[in-house]
Design brief:
3-stranded mixed sheet, 5 strands, two-stranded antiparallel sheet, elongated, BTB_POZ_KLHL6, BACK, about 300 residues, mainly alpha, kelch repeat
Amino acid sequence: MGDTLEKSSEEPEISLDNECLMKMGDLVEVSSGEKVKFDDTGLSLVLQNGLENLRLENSLTDVILCVDSREFSCHRVVLAAASNYFRAMFCNDLREKYEEKIILKGVDAETMNILLDYTYTSKMLITKQNVQKVLEAASLFQFLRMVDACASFLTEALQPENCVGILRLADAHSLHSLKQQVQNYIIQNFTQVLNYEEFLELPADILCSTLKSDDLYVTEEAQVFETVMNWVRYKESERFPLLPYVLENVRLPLLDPWYFVETVEADQLIRQCPDVFPLLQEARMYHLSGNEVSKKANGVTPDTSPS
């Protein structure tokens, strides 16, 4: 009996050869003929498939998510591992930690099903039709990798007709990288984006940050001025007080002097807004200065004799 116990306590030898191990995973380190360090890279997939099967069989589930009229049986540990939102819900002393059924708001059942399929399988189908809802839900429930996937999809889908909507979506969900990429797209394709009414829905701060860019693609500064005035007139009663704020992003001194006098100074909204007069005066001084320089360059001396 003693001999038997002594032998069973010895560390068993591993007889798997290297070729067999490599078929199963990565052979991390061979220290001797008796010990190996082995990383089974396929185990994570086995676990994932196993958890998905348990969900489909409704086995060992311990929470029901209620969305609209549908119920989704899930495992708290899986949700908490995939989402910071559910981690906070189930790992802190919140009411939901002890409830069997949890009612979720801010998402529809179809979108929630996409999120759960992704959680258990790591796969999802993003389309132009569902990307906004999926992004909003993933942002709400903090499925961060899903948010990144949606943002990448939207970046690839940028067009003049949809870029403003994508920009507003990125801004609403604090997706700074996506927002910057969309702004760069608008800056580089400004004259095309202007053709769509959606551009006039831009918030003032985003409009100004776009207009002030040195890389803004326009053929002439008059386009920028007309953009500002169209934007103000689109919601005139609401935006008229913002006119000085947005107009300062137009390089008025770079406008053709004739256009400045005939169009800018003659505009009724401009004339009704005293707060923009300093901007106009600065442009006038620049134009006068430019005319004097031009005259001197051509050998013309201003007439300073008394009349």
